Amino acid sequence: MDTMKDQTLSFLLRRFEEAGISPNHKLGQNFLMDQNLLKLVVRSADIQPTDIILEVGTGTGGLTVQMAPKAKHVITVELDQQLFQLAGEELFTCDNVTMLNMDILKNKNRLNPEVMNTIQAIREQNPESDLKLVANLPYSVATPIMTNLLGLQDPPKSMTVLIQKEVGERMMAEPGTKDYGALSLWCQCQADVEIVRIIPPGVFFPPPKVYSAIVHLEYRPEKRARIKELERWHDFIRAMFFHRRKFLRSELISCFKNVLEKSDVDAILEKMNLTPETRAEQLDLETMMALCETSYEQVALKKG
User: Fold this and answer.
1) What are the extents of the domains in the chain?
2) Backbone region of residue 273 per phi and psi (left: phi > 0; alpha: psi in -120 to 50; beta: other values)
3) pLDDT per residue as tens digits for the range 147-190
4) Model's pTM, two decimal places?
5) Contact predicate 148/110, CB 8 Å
């Protein structure tokens, strides 16, 4: 009999046929066939015996079963009811796996409280444990999942994910490049980001239309410590890249339209030695952080 480690294409096709399942493109269901790549994801995550693993997108349990023997506990979240049932049949012998049949997201700006309560309860039972995200993330929700997890008061120690190559490149992008934006700043201000491996479409079933990447983020609390107010910073960088090609002066005026006059914005730019024609995509992380603080100092002065 096939075991969970035998999740080859023929195995999956037979299990899908038995269960009456067809991969749902809208949910970003692309199943990784290559066992060596699954093992590379697990190795890249450096799972320790005390770790609590969060997996989003259980799928058929192919990655879950690789992680369960290595971790203290695996919390795996699957939205699709049919896949949840299929994975449950494969994982029922894993007594350190908690399966949740729900969406990880409440909305694009908020994680599902029910999932977070489960994570919190298991973390409280294991105070010595680190939380790590290890997942083949559905492409359509990869960015909001990672963005929201990074916004937690106590975020995962690391994130090792299989995502769209383009998203990984945006996370690592440097100023002045087409991929550089709010996501780049949000990740780099809190973590070290590395693309471990570029993955071709052909190793998935069904194959996606784009290349993928194994991406590893290592959370660095000393980086986050430089940010005075995390939520304010997040809102600021999103506002600065809302209209990517607009000049920085226009973006600042829009961002603070109910608080600052145009002359106040000009004062901010002058203090920062920036011209009105500067664009957000030209500013590195340090300069953008300084611009954020200078802007809110001006707001405080205005409010008296």
Assistant:
1) 4-224, 230-303
2) left
3) 999 999 999 999 999 999 999 999 999 999 999 999 999 999 99
4) 0.94
5) yes
